[in-house]
Design brief:
Length: 256
Amino acid sequence: MKSTSTHQSLKRGLQIVETVAVMSEPPTLSAIARKTNLNRSTTHHILKALVEFGYLVQAPETLTYSLSSKLYRITKRTWTTEQLAEIAASYLEELGKVTGEGTSLAVFRDGQVIVAAKREQEGPLRVVQRIGESRPVHCTAVGKVLAAGLTDQELEELIARTDFTRKTPKTITSPAVFRKEMSRVREKGIAYDYEEHIKGVRCLAAPVRDYSGQTRAALCVLGPKDNLSAKRLSKLQHDLISSAAALSARLGYKPR
């Protein structure tokens, strides 16, 4: 009898994990119960156990569930751009509130730097971002962070196919200078854009790493230069790095 009960509990637990994995958006308890045809009480107890064992994660604000980094690590899977954007949403929101500036998350997709998620700053003076837009790798803080996360060979291949087009008078246009910038970003763990991409706009970015230790995204704070003096950018480093570290931990990253 006990064996049958254990078998049934295991079956239901796996059913819930599979349901969460295939749903297009992180589901709530009610959505999971409907999808699995289990009652709410049973679903709640199984979800609680799966969270305790580290197989699922519950978002504190929306109370939705998603697969944990543990399952991605076991299966050697990685997150899609859309999944990363969903996970990063609360971190972008909190970072934006703390800094008072716009925030965004960028990833490499098909060899391009793409804005995956954003949080606009409040007030009339702000920098407009669009999800899905591409960014140059050589003159943006997010591009530099993502490039610095590549292996040396991958970086050289990227440099070889990069058109170092001048966007502003401050744009890096030399592969040699860009290599030096990569060394600095790797050493400091943070990248800056002092009006290199768009005149009048400044930003700083930090890497977001996953369970494998690889850089999966770049977390960024940006705004008009009048808001972001060099001194203030330096002060915002702590908030940005802390937020990037928290998001990295959510993806299973453990500093060595």
